[in-house]
Amino acid sequence: VDELRKLRESLKKKIGLRNNTARIRIIVGMATSGIASGARETLKAILEEIENRNLTDVLVTQSGEKGLHPEEPVVVVEDMKEKIRTIYGGVTPEVARMIIVEHIVYGKPVKRYMVQREKMGES
Fold it and tell me: Is the Cβ–Cβ distance between 103 and 113 less than 8 Å?
């Protein structure tokens, strides 16, 4: 946990983001069920991939239960410009890296792991 906190703080300092300047917001479900399913490692992989690719317009946050227990670990990608939310399930560290590259860098959602895609503001 301390290692993740340090990595996240380091990344925050490097990119100096605030919520309203992020192009993409990534939310990792870190409730007990998510952590038990590997969300901690998934979060670490996301933070490392963002740092390795020097993505300065991506904000990563954590949330509690998303109501998608069978799909844990859950990662939500919100495109702040297009106002589209994509929910991914079964996100291992390898899948997390794939999401960063394919979805965040190249703009192509990873359909194989997609649980839901919606306009933001809808549920």
Answer: no
Domain count within the chain: 1
Q: What is the pTM of this model?
A: 0.81
Mean pLDDT taken over the chain: 86
CATH of the domain at 111: 3.40.30.10
CB-side neighbour CA atoms (13 Å) of 17: 22
Tell me the three state secondary structure of residue 56.
Answer: coil
- How far is 24 from 55, CA to CA, in rounded Å? 10
Reading the block at residue 60, the tokens are: 């990563």
Beta bridge partners of 27: 61, 76
Output the six-digit token pair for 93.
Answer: 């560290």
Q: Find the largest Cα–Cα distance for the chain.
A: 35
